[in-house]
Structures are given as structure tokens and as C-alpha cells.
Design goal:
Layout: E1 14-15, E2 30-36, E3 42-48, H1 51-61, E4 68-74, H2 79-93, H3 104-108, E5 111-112, H4 119-126, H5 132-156, H6 167-171, E6 174-175
Antiparallel strand pairs: 1-4, 2-3, 2-4, 5-6
């Protein structure tokens, strides 16, 4: 039986965080989700085999935009059905949310530390006099700084979820959850 998209307007807004925690009822659930900012402006429409884990990734990558969500779960993973829901919600919105257009990388990919380096860090990192070991140290320090900024932003939102970055990715200049 084909899955029909629910109208985004008919789905209720759910708080992204409830007393600092993501909605556990979506742990291990397959479905589509729409993420809204504080003013309930649509920011991103995605789909996942585990909505809870995806919401956690988005919260770490884009904490300033994750305040409300709407969700439609389905029984079994079905990419065609999920893409249909995603397309219907974007069409219903009347415009493509930035998270599905120009800012897609920031929503869907690991945080690239090199792109977030300060001018000073970038200058030091690209200095031809530095050997690879020094460059690695600069990259790792930048990753630690950016990780601390993310954790501070999450703390300001009273996030209680356990947040642990993958140390192997951090060594290569990427920040993503383990």
C-alpha cells in the first residue's frame, strides 16, 4: 500500500527539545521530518532511517535553527515514499527552504573545520614553513575550539543529550557525532 504524504499544515508542531532532550519516540523510526526555527519558519525537510539520530546531527550542525519539528513516520524504509513526502512538503511550503538549497551542506554533512577556521588559524595552517605535524596540530586545535563553541551553543539551549564527536573524524578536520 503506497504511503501518502500528510499535509505539513495538518501536522502539529513538536518542540525540538523537551527539557533538554530530543523526542525519544522517534528513536529507530523511519520517516520524514521538517525542521523549523523559533518563529516556526521552515528551515529544512529531511528523511531518515532513524529520525532521532538525524535530529541530533542537525541540532549539532545548526542549533540556531532547530526549535520546532513536524514528523511523518512510515513502517518500513522506502526511499521513494520518503522522497515523495519531502517533495510534497517543500511544494506545500511554496519555496525551497535554505536547508534544502544553498545551506544543504551545513545541514547534511560533517562540519568542515578548515572552512570554519579563523583568519589567524588559516594563515598559520597554510604557512609553507610549517611541516605536516604542525599543520595537524593547528587543525586539531581549531577542531577543539569549534567543538567548544558548538557545545556552548547547545548548553545555552539547555541541551541534556549526550554529545560525543567522532575522534577519528576530528583528526581529519571534520566534526560529526559518533
Amino acid at each position: 500500500m503506497p504511503v501518502e504524504p500528510n499535509s505539513l499544515a495538518n501536522l502539529e508542531y513538536l518542540p525540538y527539545l523537551n527539557e533538554g532532550y530530543l523526542p525519544k519516540e522517534f528513536e529507530g523510526k523511519v520517516g520524514a521530518y521538517a525542521i523549523f526555527d523559533q518563529e516556526q519558519t521552515l528551515q529544512f525537510v529531511g528523511y531518515s532511517r532513524d529520525i532521532y539520530l538525524s535530529l541530533k546531527q542537525h541540532l549539532v550542525r545548526r542549533p540556531q535553527y532547530c526549535y520546532w519539528l513536524k514528523v511523518q513516520t512510515i513502517d518500513r524504509p522506502n526511499r521513494t515514499a520518503l522522497e515523495k513526502i519531502q517533495a510534497a512538503w517543500i511544494a506545500e511550503n511554496g519555496s525551497i527552504p535554505l536547508g534544502n538549497a544553498n545551506e544543504r551542506t551545513q545541514w547534511e554533512q560533517a562540519i568542515d573545520v578548515k572552512a570554519a577556521m579563523t583568519l589567524e588559524e588559516r594563515s598559520e595552517y597554510t604557512n609553507p614553513e610549517n611541516d605536516p605535524q604542525t599543520q595537524h596540530k593547528i587543525l586539531k586545535n581549531a577542531a577543539r575550539r569549534i567543538e567548544a563553541e558548538i557545545l556552548a551553543a547547545l548548553q545555552s539551549r539547555q541541551v541534556q543529550e549526550a554529545i560525543r564527536f567522532n575522534p577519528k573524524l576530528k583528526d581529519s578536520g571534520l566534526l560529526d557525532l559518533k
